[in-house]
Amino acid sequence: MLALTDVGLAYLLIAATAMPPKKQSRWLRKIARRYDPDRQVRYYRARREGLVTIRPSVDPPTMAEFLHHCGVRVLYQDRETLAVGVH
Questions:
Q1: Is 1 domain-assigned?
Q2: Which single residue of 14, 29, 86, 87 has CA 20 to 30 Å from 53?
Q3: Residue 64: is it exposed, middle or buried by C-beta count within 10 angstroms (0-12/13-18/19+)?
């Protein structure tokens, strides 16, 4: 998903209004594809670069302990907090 700041979104919308409406849609889709490709494209790029995606199944206390040993400060053991710690 493409995430923009308020200023970034404002610049994007100002740039889009400078062109004819028929070209706006195509231009915005082109930008979205460039910066946020679909899942299949990301998968093939990762494969080509030799990256591997793993999805571990770990109970929250074990993951919190692992993050703590890696030097990441974990305040809660809920899913969202642990996901932020992993990233």
A1: no
A2: 29
A3: buried
**Which domain range does residue 63 map to?**
55-87
Q: Mind listing the pLDDT tens digit for each residue in 8-34?
A: 888 888 888 888 988 988 988 888 888
CA angle 58, 64, 67 (to 5 degrees): 105
Q: Are 24 and 16 within 8 A, CB to CB?
A: yes
Distance CA 82, CA 76 (A): 8
**Can you say whether residue 21 is alpha, beta or left, with left for phi > 0 and alpha for psi between -120 and 50 degrees?**
alpha
Does residue 17 sit in helix, strand or coil?
helix
Number of domains in the chain: 2
